[in-house]
Each structure stands twice: as structure tokens, then as C-alpha cells.
């Protein structure tokens, strides 16, 4: 009897303690909750109920003369004849920074090797690197360092002939300028390429899969095509600590128009042209480049489509059954050589085809992609395609 009584009291005490703990956790986390949960609820409501982004277009439209200031930087490195008189399937811009020479070299000798693509896949893909001017200009000792960097870039460009560089400071907050440069350059020098892609320099592109997919899309004569990992109803981040902080002055609405993750997306020729024209009259001071792309597309009535094998921030699991279908995967630097080798091995196609191969892969993909706690990859539904 006495023992029981004590046990009950202990139990109540534990309950009380747990309640206190939970309450204090909620209080501590409230701000976090408020920032993420509440802003998402608002933003989804805006996206799905109000869904009127026409105001955005109106309020960001500025006179052409003023919009020019976002695009008229002189070119420091350029290759205006890259695409001349060729049937280009894909023009692929890799967003890079002056110091990332190792990433560029890795891309050149793996998925971005134009000669390999021409020989092995029988199509012309042009891979060029978009960059601004070196940051070192602002640091001490400024002059020597900046020219050192630029000299190295000129040397690198002499070897490979694939750097497109404009004279704006290469920084995170100038990514939108880099985006605008890509669309301007395409309009001026490669408007006949059937597709335009923009990608980060730490991305892996499964070029054979991408080429055969784009050939298929092209043969069906698809227009208004914009594909990637889609963000729908994403709210602007108002917390000043965030890298993606956007002030009310810069963007006043509760939700961004739909856009694809900047890690890698593809548009068709007609979309590239429309976006170029939208860029001529929009205020590009919003520095999140993929969101700005969404705003431009919204202004010309183009909306993005989801492809489950395009990754956003996520890195694909290493497995043959994934390589068979993957398009892009984000966050690859050191492993890019090895991934390129294993992902394009002819054995992959052999082992993943046939009834047994397909059944095996279906099970593997469910196991790899449908874990409830594993967000960093392709969505679960990719396992069923
Ligand atoms: C690109 O591929 C070709 C042919 O496959 C090869 O000869 C060349 O060395 C490769 N380039 C680089 C930079 O690896
Ligand atoms: C963007 O580039 C311009 C031109 O070089 C420069 O004046 C400006 O400070 C840069 N902005 C940021 C945020 O780096
Ligand atoms: C563009 O927007 C910024 C705010 O994000 C504003 O300060 C600037 O004046 C605008 N530019 C023009 C030309 O209206
Ligand atoms: C966006 O604004 C421009 C200029 O105000 C207008 O010409 C264009 O039709 C608008 N687009 C949409 C989709 O409302």
C-alpha cells in the first residue's frame, strides 16, 4: 500500500516535470515556430487561395533605361562564336566563381566534356562557365591580388576557351546579375540552342540521361518548357540572420511565385527568349537568383514543372538503380570523377533492365528514397517511376 502510494506520487511528479519541459520547449522554440510554420501557412494560403501574382509584375516593372544597369557590365572574357553554325541541343551555363578552378576542371573532364558528349552521345552540347570579377579587388593588397586572379583566369580560358565573365563583383548577392548575363548572352550568341540550362558548379549532371530526355522532349516539339525541382508557395525569409533574408522593401508579398531550385534547371528556347524580354523591364535588385527567375517567368506566364530526378539541395544516394534515372544531384566536388565513372558504366543499363533488374531496383529505390526522416534526396514518388 505504502509502496503503491509512493509510486503514484512519483508518477505524478514525472508527469508534471514532462509538462513543464514541453511547455518550456514550446516557449523557447516559439519564435522558430512562428518563423517557419506560420510563415509557411500564410505563404501556402497566398499561393493556393489568393494566387494572384500580377501585382508583383506591376510593382517590379521599371523603365528599360533603368533596368539596363543590371546587364550592361563590360565583358572581361567572352566567346561570342561558341555556338555559331551548329545545331546545339543544349547550352549549359555553370555558375562559378573565379577561385573555383578545381570544380571547373572536374566538370570539364567528366560530365561537361563536350568532346565526349559529341562522340559518345552524338549531339552538340555547349558547356560554358558564368562568372563575375574576383572578390580580391576589395581586399588588401588589392591590386596585385586582383590582377593575379584575373591573369590565372585568362590563362585557364586560353586552355579551354569556355569562360564568360562580366565586370561585376562575383558575390552571393550578385547572383541575379550572373543570371541576367546568362540570358543576355544566350539571346545574343546562342539563341538557336534548343535548350538552356543553368547549374551550380558543385552539381553532378548525368549527361547521357539528360541528353536522351531532352532529345525526346525536343522531338515532341514541346514549348513553354521549364523543368527542375519546383518550390511552390515558398515564403520570403524575414529573419535577418539568414543568408536568404529579404526585406519587405525588396519583396512585400507573402509568397514567391513558383520557381525551380537554382542547383540546376532547363528551359526551352522559347522560354529563354521570353525570360530575356522580361528581364529588360524588371527591377533585379532581388538577389536570390532562382526566385528572380520565378518572377520573370511569372511575368511572361510560364510555370515550372517538376521532374523527380532533378535534385534541389539534395544529394542522390549512391546506387546503380538511381544512376539509371538520375538527372542532377547536388553537392558533389571530390567524388565527381568517381561518380561519373560508376554512373555512366554500361553495366548500369544491363543490370537494371529486364524483369528481375526492374523488380530489384523498385525495391532498392523504395528502401533508399522513402525513408520518412531522409529529406536530402529525390522524393519517394521517384521510386515508382
Ligand atoms: C574529353 O573526352 C575526350 C574523348 O573522350 C578525351 O580525349 C579528353 O581527354 C577529355 N577531356 C578532358 C579534359 O578530360
Ligand atoms: C555587385 O557588383 C557591383 C558591380 O561590381 C558592385 O558595385 C556591388 O557592390 C556588388 N554587390 C554586392 C552585394 O556584392
Ligand atoms: C528596385 O528595388 C529596390 C528595392 O528592392 C529599390 O530600392 C530601387 O529603388 C528599385 N529600383 C528602381 C529603378 O525602381
Ligand atoms: C507584366 O507587366 C508588363 C508591363 O507592365 C506587361 O506588359 C505584361 O503583360 C505583364 N505580364 C503579366 C503576365 O501580367
Automatic annotation (TrEMBL):
UniProt protein name? Hexosyltransferase
Q: Which reaction does it catalyse?
A: a beta-D-Gal-(1->4)-beta-D-Glc-(1<->1)-Cer(d18:1(4E)) + UDP-N-acetyl-alpha-D-glucosamine = a beta-D-GlcNAc-(1->3)-beta-D-Gal-(1->4)-beta-D-Glc-(1<->1)-Cer(d18:1(4E)) + UDP + H(+); a neolactoside nLc4Cer(d18:1(4E)) + UDP-N-acetyl-alpha-D-glucosamine = a neolactoside IV(3)-beta-GlcNAc-nLc4Cer(d18:1(4E)) + UDP + H(+)
- Listed GO MF terms: lactosylceramide 1,3-N-acetyl-beta-D-glucosaminyltransferase activity
One GO biological process term is: protein O-linked glycosylation
Q: Does the keyword Phosphoprotein apply?
A: no
Top-level taxon: Eukaryota
Signal peptide span per the entry? 1-31
Where's it mainly located?
Answer: Golgi
Sequence similarity: Belongs to the glycosyltransferase 31 family.
Q: Which Pfam families match?
A: Galactosyl_T
Q: Which gene encodes it?
A: b3gnt5a
Q: Which PANTHER family match?
A: BETA-1,3-N-ACETYLGLUCOSAMINYLTRANSFERASE, LACTOSYLCERAMIDE 1,3-N-ACETYL-BETA-D-GLUCOSAMINYLTRANSFERASE
- Class of the enzyme per the UniProt entry, highest EC level: transferase
Q: Which Gene3D superfamilies match?
A: 3.90.550.50
Q: Name the membrane topology term.
A: Single-pass type II membrane protein
Q: Where is this chain's protein located in or outside the cell? A: Golgi apparatus membrane
